[in-house]
Design a protein that fits this description.
The protein is α+β, with helices and mostly antiparallel strands. The chain is built from 17 helices and ten strands.
C-alpha cells in the first residue's frame, strides 16, 4: 500500500508538471526558474547521452577501418614483394644454368641465396597481417614457399659442387614448374582476399561518414537546446534581474521612493523583488556608512587606474602582433572558437580583395565568405563550409588543402588549432609553382616521346656500376632483346667476353675524353643477331661525384650498308 501511494504521488506530481509545461508553452508564467532550467538541462542531458553513444560508435568504426585498411595495404605490398623476389630467384637460377664457369656461377648463386633470405623474411613479415579470412590459404602458401626456398638452395649446392648441367636438371623440370604455378595461384588468391578486405574497410568508412552525420545532427540539437536555455534565462531571469538591479541602484543612490518591479511574481524572481523592497526600507541606514563608501570609491579609482595601465600594455602587444603577421608573405586569418575573425593580415585582405568594412574583431568567417561569393572568389556553400570549420575547431584537427579560385589562382591552405580554442589559417598563393610543375611534366613527356621514336638506338648506363638503365625502341630492335632483358644488366651479362671487353674499353675512353661526338665504327658480336657493324656516338652526363652520372650511347647499325658496299 505504501509503495502504491508513493507511485501515485509521483505520477500526480509528474502530471502537474506536464500541465505547467503546457501552460508555459501557451504563454503563462507557471514555471519557476529552477523548473525552467532543469527542464532544458534534462533535454540537453538526453541529447548529450546520445551524442556520447554516437561518439563511441564513431571511434570504434574509425579504429576498425584504420586496422583493416592498414593490414590490407601492408599485405598487398608484401604480395607484390614476394612475387618480385620469386621472379628474381628464378632469374638467378637461369643464370646458374647458363654459366660457363664456376666464378660466373658463384655470382648468381650468391644472388640467389640472398634473394632466398629476403623471401623468407618477407613471408615472415607477412604473417603479421594474417587474419581469419586468409589464415588457411596463407598456411599452405607458407609451406610451399619453404619448399621453394629449400629447393633453390639445393639447386645452388648442385651447381657449385657438381655442374651447371646438374643444377639445370634439378631446376628445369615439371615439378619445379608445377610448384611455381601453385605459388602464382596462391598469390592471386591472397591478392583477391586483400582486395575484399580493402572493400570491407571502405564500407566501414561509409558507415563512419553516416555516424559523423548523426554526430553533427546531435551536436546541432545540443546547440539549439543551449540557445533555448540562453533565451529562457534572458527573458525569464536575466531581464528581470537587470530591472531589479536598476531599482537597487536607484535605491542605493538615495531614491527610497523608487518602485521595485516584479513583486507580483510567484517564483524566485518575485521573492527576490520582495527582498529588495525590504532593502529599500533599510536604505536610510546605508547613509551612515558614507565614510566607508568613500574608501570604497578610492579603491575603485585605484582599480580603474590599474585597468588603464593593463589596457596600454594590451594595445602595445596588439600592435606588435599586427606588425608581425602583416610582415608574413602568406595570408593569415585567426578565428575564435565560434568562427569570429580575431585577426587578419594585409596579404589575406589583398588575396581575397576584402573591403574596409570587413575588419578583425567585428567580422565573422561567414561574412568574409559571403563577400568572396559576391566577388566570385568562392563557389561552395557558405553554411556547410563554416560548419566544417567549426567542427575542426571543436576537434582541434589540423587540415591542409588546395583550392582553385575562379580567377585561376591556386591557394594552399594550412589550418592549425591555437591554445584557448582558437584557430589559425595560413593561405599561400602557389599558382606559379603549380604552373611550373605542369610545364615540367609536359616537357618530360615531350622528351620521352622524341627519344622513343628516333631511328638511332639510345642506350644509357649508370657510370658507377655499368648497369644499363634505359634503352629506346630502336635499341631494342638493334640488339634483338627487350628492355626487360637489358635493364639492370651489365655488358658482361649480355654479350660475349670479347664484346663486353670492347664496350668497357669504350667506357674508359669516354670517361677520359668527357664526350665522343664523332662516330666510332666497331664490329661486335650480338648474342641474338650475330656479328654486327655499328656506328656509335657517346656522351657523358654528370660527373664522378654525382649520383646521376651516366654514359649515353647513340647507336646506328651499319651492317647492311657495309655488306652492300662489299658486294
Amino acid at each position: 500500500m505504501g509503495d502504491a501511494a508513493a507511485v501515485g504521488a509521483r505520477l500526480e506530481a509528474g502530471t502537474k508538471f506536464l500541465k505547467k509545461l503546457v501552460r508555459f508553452a501557451r504563454g503563462a508564467d507557471t514555471l519557476s526558474v529552477a523548473e525552467k532550467v532543469y527542464s532544458i538541462a534534462g533535454f540537453l542531458a538526453i541529447v548529450t547521452t546520445f551524442l556520447l553513444v554516437m561518439s563511441i560508435q564513431t571511434v570504434r568504426l574509425q579504429t576498425t577501418y584504420r586496422h583493416m585498411h592498414a593490414s590490407s595495404a601492408e599485405a598487398a605490398i608484401s604480395v607484390g614483394r614476394i612475387n618480385a623476389l620469386i621472379y628474381a630467384i628464378v632469374m638467378e637460377s637461369r643464370g646458374i644454368y647458363m654459366s660457363a664457369d664456376r666464378n660466373s656461377m658463384k655470382q648468381f648463386a650468391d644472388g640467389l641465396l640472398r634473394r632466398n633470405r629476403e623471401l623468407a623474411d618477407a613471408v615472415k613479415n607477412m604473417e603479421r597481417t594474417v587474419g581469419d579470412d586468409d589464415a588457411e590459404q596463407f598456411a599452405g602458401f607458407r609451406q610451399r614457399i619453404a619448399h621453394f626456398i629449400e629447393f633453390r638452395q639445393d639447386l645452388v649446392r648442385r651447381g657449385l659442387e657438381i655442374s651447371a648441367a646438374a643444377a639445370r636438371e634439378l631446376g628445369d623440370n615439371e615439378a619445379n614448374r608445377a610448384l611455381r604455378n601453385k605459388l602464382n595461384s596462391d598469390l592471386e588468391v591472397l591478392e583477391r582476399i586483400y582486395r575484399e578486405r580493402a572493400r570491407r574497410a571502405d564500407e566501414l568508412a561509409d558507415e563512419n561518414r553516416y555516424a559523423a552525420a548523426y554526430l553533427f545532427a546531435l551536436g546541432l540539437a545540443a546547440l539549439l537546446l543551449a540557445g533555448l536555455n540562453v533565451v529562457v534565462m534572458r527573458s525569464s531571469v536575466v531581464g528581470a534581474l537587470a530591472e531589479i538591479t536598476q531599482a537597487t541602484d536607484r535605491i542605493a543612490d538615495g531614491d527610497v521612493k523608487s518602485k521595485v518591479p516584479h513583486l507580483g511574481r510567484h517564483d524566485e524572481i518575485g521573492r527576490l523583488a520582495r527582498a529588495v523592497q525590504h532593502f529599500r526600507d533599510a536604505v536610510a541606514r546605508i547613509f551612515e556608512l558614507e565614510e566607508l563608501e568613500m574608501g570604497t570609491a578610492q579603491a575603485r579609482d585605484a582599480a580603474m587606474t590599474e585597468r588603464d595601465n593593463f589596457n596600454d600594455k594590451y594595445q602595445a602587444k596588439k600592435w606588435q602582433l599586427s606588425a608581425a603577421i602583416n610582415s608574413m608573405p602568406q595570408g593569415l586569418v585567426m578565428l575564435d572558437a565560434k568562427a569570429n575573425v580575431v585577426a587578419m593580415n594585409a596579404n589575406y585582405r589583398k588575396m581575397y580583395n576584402l573591403p574596409d568594412t570587413i575588419q578583425a574583431g567585428s567580422t565573422t568567417l561567414e561574412e568574409v565568405l559571403q563577400h568572396r561569393v559576391r566577388s566570385g572568389l568562392f563557389n561552395g556553400d557558405v553554411a556547410t563550409y563554416v560548419a566544417a570549420v567549426l567542427d575542426r575547431i571543436a576537434r582541434r584537427e589540423p587540415a591542409a588543402n588546395e583550392v582553385t579560385l575562379n580567377d585561376g589562382r591556386t591557394i594552399k591552405i594550412y589550418e592549425r588549432p591555437m591554445d584557448g580554442g582558437g584557430w589559425v589559417s595560413v593561405h599561400e598563393d602557389v599558382t606559379e609553382q603549380r604552373q611550373r610543375e605542369r610545364i615540367l611534366e609536359r616537357m618530360e613527356r615531350f622528351l620521352a616521346t622524341i627519344i622513343e621514336n628516333v631511328t638511332e638506338g639510345i642506350i644509357a648506363k649508370d657510370a658507377r656500376n655499368h648497369r644499363y638503365v634505359f634503352v629506346n625502341r630502336s635499341a631494342e630492335k638493334m640488339l634483338g632483346m627487350s628492355r626487360g632483358e637489358i635493364i639492370g644488366k651489365t655488358a658482361r651479362e649480355l654479350f660475349s667476353a670479347e664484346a663486353a671487353a670492347l664496350i668497357e674499353r669504350r667506357d674508359q675512353q669516354l670517361l677520359a675524353q668527357k664526350q665522343q661526338l664523332e662516330p666510332i665504327i666497331d664490329t661486335i658480336d650480338n648474342p641474338t643477331r650475330g656479328r654486327r657493324v655499328i656506328s656509335a656516338r657517346r656522351v657523358q652526363i654528370g660527373g664522378a661525384d654525382e649520383e646521376s652520372h651516366m654514359f649515353v650511347t647513340m647507336v646506328e647499325d651499319r651492317t647492311g650498308t657495309m655488306e652492300a658496299a662489299a658486294a
